[in-house]
Amino acid sequence: TMASEAEKTFQWFAVLGDSSSSGAEINNKNFSKLCQDCGIMDGKTVTSKDLDTVFNKVKAKDAGTITFQQFTEAMKELGQKRFKEKSPDQGLEDIFKLMEGKNPATTGGFYQATTAGAVDRLTHTSKYTGSHEDHLDNSGMGIVGWEETSDNSGYGRGHKGAGTYDKKGLE
C-alpha cells in the first residue's frame, strides 16, 4: 500500500544519524530532512517554518519525536498546503507518492557521501587532533616564536615578546 511505502521512507529517515532509533519515531531534524529530500517542502507553499509548526502540533507534549501515525497527521496538514486544490486524503496520498522509494541514500547520494566522509574524517581527525593538541601544549610558544622569526621584520619584536613572556612566567 501507499502507506507502507511511505512508512519505509519514514523509517529510513528516522534512523538517520541516530543509531538508537528503532525507526518507529522520527526527530524534528530528520523530519525536516525527509520533507526536504522528498520534495514535500518546496520553500514556497511549504517552508521549514511550516515543518516546525506541524511537527510541534502533532507530537506529544514532552516528546522530541513523532510516530508514523502522528507523521501521517502532519502530512495531511502539509498536503493541504502543498496541494491546495485537493482533499486531505488526496493530498496525503500525493505526499506519500513523493516519498515512495526514497531513502537518504537515494535522495541525491548525500547520505552515502557524508557517512563515508564523516567516518574518514572522524578516524582521521581523532588521530590528528590528538597529536596536534599535544604539540600545541608542549611547544605552543615554539610555534608562535617560529612564525615570527621566519618573518624578518617581526624578528626583534617577536624575540623581545618571548623574553618578557618568560620573565613573567618566572615571577
UniProtKB/TrEMBL annotation:
<comment type="similarity">
    <text>Belongs to the TPPP family.</text>
</comment>
<dbReference type="InterPro" id="IPR008907">
    <property type="entry name" value="TPP/p25"/>
</dbReference>
<dbReference type="GO" id="GO:0005874">
    <property type="term" value="C:microtubule"/>
</dbReference>
<dbReference type="Pfam" id="PF05517">
    <property type="entry name" value="p25-alpha"/>
</dbReference>
<protein>
    <recommendedName>
        <fullName>EF-hand domain-containing protein</fullName>
    </recommendedName>
</protein>
<keyword id="KW-0963">Cytoplasm</keyword>
<dbReference type="GO" id="GO:0005509">
    <property type="term" value="F:calcium ion binding"/>
</dbReference>
<feature type="region of interest" description="Disordered">
    <location>
        <begin position="128"/>
        <end position="171"/>
    </location>
</feature>
<dbReference type="InterPro" id="IPR011992">
    <property type="entry name" value="EF-hand-dom_pair"/>
</dbReference>
<dbReference type="GO" id="GO:0046785">
    <property type="term" value="P:microtubule polymerization"/>
</dbReference>
<dbReference type="GO" id="GO:0001578">
    <property type="term" value="P:microtubule bundle formation"/>
</dbReference>
<dbReference type="GO" id="GO:0005737">
    <property type="term" value="C:cytoplasm"/>
</dbReference>
<dbReference type="GO" id="GO:0032273">
    <property type="term" value="P:positive regulation of protein polymerization"/>
</dbReference>
<feature type="domain" description="EF-hand">
    <location>
        <begin position="46"/>
        <end position="81"/>
    </location>
</feature>
<dbReference type="GO" id="GO:0015631">
    <property type="term" value="F:tubulin binding"/>
</dbReference>
<dbReference type="InterPro" id="IPR002048">
    <property type="entry name" value="EF_hand_dom"/>
</dbReference>
